[in-house]
Amino acid sequence: MFDSTALPGDFHGFMGGEEHVFANSLIGLVMKYRLDTQGASYFRGVQIIYPPLNARELGEVLYKADRAPKKYTSFIIQDFKNGRLAEISCDPAAMASYFEKDSSLPFQTSPVFFKPEVLDKYKADPDKYRLDARSISCRNAWSLQTYDFNDAGQVHTMIKYLGDLPYAEQLHWKSCNESPKAPISKRSYKTDFEGSFDVEPDGLRDLKC
Q1: Which of 101, 108, 114, 146 is most open to solvent, judged by the fewest CB atoms within 10 Å of its CB?
Q2: Is the dihedral of CA 51, 55, 60, 66 positive or negative?
Q3: Higher confidence at residue 17 or residue 125?
Q4: SS3 of residue 14 by DSSP
Q5: CA angle, 141 as apex, 139 and 145 as ends, to 5°?
């Protein structure tokens, strides 16, 4: 649907000119428009655009996409298990849990660090993304379970949660990935590693509450 009106600065009502109706069934377009003798005009109409696939075809595409192998990219992580910086895939198969004691793979909780502008994309579109104090979500399509800021202003999260993102989002985060300039935040260490509550004062969080 489209609707546009143009009025001169001294407009006092439409004067002269007739309203016309245009319709083209081949392209599914119908509209009405008018241009008066004082330069005022309007046009309003709709165009019906049919999807390229019918319901069955679209269902088959979505079915195949849902079952296609998921793609993963790699990130520079702080592999504290092996005492190094390393670039590894966020594929769950490339990391280990605390219960896999014989595995040399980095922990799923290995921190990954990013430039702060990685969040600009989500701040700029609040209708599509929800940016909370510690999590990000996209219209129930995906979510990043946790993130925080360290003392150097870097955004950080865990490699495991990056693997939960769609591949396009992984690439966005990878574009801002960098080596750590400071450890993870004290708040993240307390809540994500010690499993305790964050009771430190937070003015912005308290204001939202």
Answers
A1: 101
A2: positive
A3: 125
A4: coil
A5: 90
